[in-house]
Write a structure and sequence with these properties.
The strands form two sheets. The chain has a five-stranded mixed sheet with strand order 4-1-6-5-8, with helices on both faces. Strands 3-2-7 form a three-stranded antiparallel sheet, with no helix packed on it. It contains five helices and eight strands; from the N terminus they run H-H-H-E-E-E-E-H-E-E-E-H-E. Helix 1 runs antiparallel to helix 2 and helix 2 crosses helix 3. The protein has two domains: 56 residues, no CATH class; 137 residues, Nucleoside Triphosphate Pyrophosphohydrolase. By secondary structure, it is of the alpha/beta class. The chain is 36% helix and 26% strand.
Length: 206
């Protein structure tokens, strides 16, 4: 497995090539940028011991200036101060959430994901944190992700069977189940509890 500095360098190389392909005009420069992108994919495939075709599927198909992907996670508490988690198909637990869709805002996406995964209608009321995923969660992804943790209040609803989650349940801070740490780790859940108990919580950001 490559070290983080090497991965950072390869990812930056791909990002520069992608920008060059989007903004460049000279056909010879475009050929060079395309070749740089291919080299970055080859290097990453070697570092991660993965097929280069799979790397290219994830790493080399976007256009324009490369920016981070957004992921929202909802923190929902019951009257006993327990936090809501959803159990995914692999048996692990996470805060309801997912990738921000192109046609939704942070608020809209958070509320939508809770409805889809937990069956609840909620109102997003406060940003708890905006985090660089690379600084907090493993495994490392091939692209930059910014995670937004959002405090929500339940309006109505109940869990309904869906393709993403098996069940939802509230947990006390000392009784957390096995977490899907790629999506949220124990420290991030504890941060949500801390935000819930502090009325004057200041949004955390990296």
């Amino acid at each position: 497995m490559a070290n983080n500095q090497l991965l950072d360098d390869i990812i930056e190389m791909q990002s520069l090539a992608q920008a060059g392909l989007y903004y460049g005009h000279d056909k010879f420069d475009l050929e060079r940028y395309e070749r740089i992108r291919e080299l970055a994919a080859d290097m990453l495939a070697i570092c991660l011991e993965m097929p280069v075709s799979k790397i290219k599927d994830v790493f080399c198909h976007e256009e324009g200036y490369q920016t981070p992907k957004l992921d929202t996670r909802a923190a929902i508490f019951n009257e006993m101060g327990e936090i809501l988690l959803v159990q995914e198909n692999d048996g692990l637990w996470s805060l309801p959430g997912g990738w921000v869709d192109m046609n939704t805002s942070i608020k809209e996406n958070t509320e939508k994901e809770v409805k889809e995964e937990a069956g609840l209608d909620v109102k997003a009321i406060k940003i708890i944190a905006i985090m660089d995923r690379d600084k907090h969660n493993l495994p490392r992804y091939l692209y930059k992700v910014i995670k937004v943790f959002v405090m929500c209040e339940v309006i109505s609803g109940h869990f309904e069977e869906n393709i993403e989650t098996i069940q939802c349940q509230y947990f006390a801070a000392q009784q957390l189940p096995e977490l899907s740490t790629a999506k949220n780790n124990k420290k991030q859940i504890e941060m949500c509890f801390e935000s819930y108990h502090h009325q004057n919580w200041q949004t955390y950001f990296d």
